[in-house]
Specification:
Structural class: mainly alpha
Shape: globular
Organism: Aliirhizobium cellulosilyticum
Strand content: under 5%
Number of domains: 1
Helix content: over 70%
Keywords: Membrane, Transmembrane, Transmembrane helix
Radius of gyration: 21 Å
Order of helices and strands: HHHHHHHHHHHHHHHHH
Distance between the termini: 22 Å
Largest sheet: none
InterPro entries: UCP028704_OpgC (IPR014550)
Number of strands: 0
Number of helices: 17
Protein name: OpgC domain-containing protein
Pfam family, one: OpgC_C
């Protein structure tokens, strides 16, 4: 039947969800924190891990073009996106009069001025303010999953080649979907570019599903990945802090582009995952009691991510009203936000286990 879950994926996804919350909260240290982890940030790792999880959840060898389960997941993500949009719109409406200068209000200004038109566009994934185009990217990726499975069964090499070609065309040609809610006029996370790192994750996940090691240990590869990941930290941080200017700034920006999933970002994410996957520390950490709650939030990523957006927006409103907030006050908000993530993860996991137990008892009560 194959492996259904890999606790390391849950743990790493949980960590990335907490990092995403910190990055979106607009603390005085959020931007520096985001750039102090190398070329890649939590977004790349989360998409990579999402691809692995999708393979574990939905892949069936030689099943042909099986649409139902991945597309049902895409529909659930779409519903979560709509609910999140409504929550953020209501939030902005409540704040609009007194706190119009906060990012929560300014991001939704277009909707507040033209609610019907922009609301229809939002439902059609054509108007996504702030951080709201992240879930739509996942919708597109989940629609892509059945094709990935089909091509993988034909030839993994063909799959990666086609995915890479799409990535190159989208990146070099700046092929993207329109999003007038953002100043750039397009999706911040271009799904045509981000599908590559997601597809790589799917291929790795299929290896796990079929009983193979996705990232087998090799001493040279491990040290190469470690060297790359370590060097990426000061280089990216120095560039962000304007301590140095690369000789070809335009080309360098393409290499680290977040919208187009630049090659240095992909390489860094793969290096970090390779290191984490092969470190005994991470393998042991999955069994530590005090980290189980982190794995729980990784296991329930969609509701946790959605509530994380609400929490980070609330934190950004506070920071907009108190730009000189003390570090202590910011740390209290950070800890409270992370605690809310963990509490919700515990609640959802408890609910899942209870439902599973009820189904098992029902099956015993009604034998075939």
């Amino acid at each position: 039947m194959g492996i259904q879950r890999e606790v390391r994926i849950d743990l790493l996804r949980g960590i990335t969800l907490l990092l995403i919350f910190i990055g979106h909260a607009e603390f005085t240290f959020s931007a520096t924190f985001q750039h102090s982890r190398g070329f890649a940030d939590a977004s790349e790792l989360f998409v990579l891990l999402a691809g692995m999880s999708s393979a574990l959840a939905y892949y069936r060898p030689n099943a042909g073009l099986s649409l139902s389960r991945p597309w049902r997941r895409a529909w659930r993500i779409y519903l979560a996106y709509l609910l999140l949009f409504l929550i953020m719109a209501a939030f902005a409406s409540l704040l609009a009069i007194e706190y119009a200068h906060t990012s929560a209000v300014s991001d939704m200004a277009g909707f507040l001025n033209e609610p019907v038109r922009r609301g229809v566009q939002a439902a059609l994934l054509a108007y996504m303010p702030g951080d709201l185009d992240i879930l739509p990217m996942y919708i597109v990726l989940m629609l892509w999953v059945p094709v990935v499975f089909l091509l993988h069964d034909r030839s993994p090499t063909l799959l990666i080649g086609l995915s890479t070609l799409i990535w190159i065309v989208a990146g070099r040609g700046h092929v993207n979907f329109a999003n007038p809610a953002l100043e750039s006029g397009h999706w911040y996370f271009d799904p045509l570019s981000w599908q590559l790192i997601f597809t790589i994750g799917v291929v790795l996940g299929i290896r796990i599903k079929t009983g193979r090691d996705p990232l087998p240990y090799d001493r040279k590869a491990f040290f190469l990945a470690a060297g790359f990941a370590i060097i990426a930290i000061p280089v990216n941080l120095a560039y962000f802090l304007a301590w140095f200017q690369p000789p070809y700034p335009g080309f360098y920006k393409e290499l680290i582009s977040k919208t187009n999933s630049g090659p240095l970002r992909i390489a860094d994410a793969l290096a970090i995952l390779y290191l984490a996957w092969n470190m005994d520390f991470v393998k042991k950490a999955t069994g530590w009691v005090w980290l189980r709650h982190v794995s729980m939030i990784g296991r329930h990523s969609l509701p946790i991510f959605s509530i994380g957006i609400v929490l980070s927006t609330s934190a950004s409103v506070y920071m907009g009203l108190h730009p000189q907030a003390s570090l202590g006050a910011q740390m209290i908000i950070l800890v409270a936000g992370c605690a809310a993530h963990l509490a919700l993860g515990w609640f959802l996991e408890r609910k899942r286990l209870r439902a599973s137990s009820d189904r098992l008892q029902l099956g015993r009560a009604n034998p075939a």
